[in-house]
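Quick one from the shared queue. A colleague (R.T.) flagged Corrinoid adenosyltransferase as missing a structural entry in our internal table.

Convert sequence to structure tokens.
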Amino acid sequence: MGIYTRTGDKGKTGLIGARVFKDNLRVEAYGTTDELNSFIGKAMTELPEGKFADLLEDLETIQHELFDGGGDLANVSDKRTDKLKAESVDVLERRIDELMAEAPELERFILPGGSAPSATLHICRTVARRGERQIVRLINSGEEVPETVLQYLNRLSDYLFAAARVANARLGQPDVEYVRSAKVFRNKTTKKKEDGGE
């Protein structure tokens, strides 16, 4: 099976329902979900299976969901049926809560890094944020975009932050705090004292 078609040699590509130039905002948006998917694949190769079976399962599911979301972004036909469902956002929220409960308490901003998989997950997080910005730009240009895709990428960046912190914690590698950061997050102990607890 050949992979080249020569149909893009004039700088255009095919959406589902239209042909557009390759620098089209919609192409940039779904292209970024593809880039994010690739970085997630790289992160998965850096996570040892024993300690990270749950994250590996999460990330493989996320790869499929990003493919779904990219397809939804690429579909401008009259017969669009969105593949990415709101339930996927709910699952991410539940997993964020679980991972943040496992990670060490956070008081200050942290720098991306620590262990190799954590650093890669932070790269994933920033690519997710870029994808989100591109979708907002697409919406602001007057284009119709499935709401779930935007919600999913917003929540996914939070999930990737939590996963990056857990990766460091499980590998015994502390997060690196930003040295000029004030205490911007209230930890559980601080909140207890403010609420009159021990």
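Confidence is low (pLDDT under 50) at residues 189-198.
The domain at 18-75+84-194 is CATH 1.20.1200.10 (Hypothetical Protein Ta1238; Chain: A;).
Added to the table.
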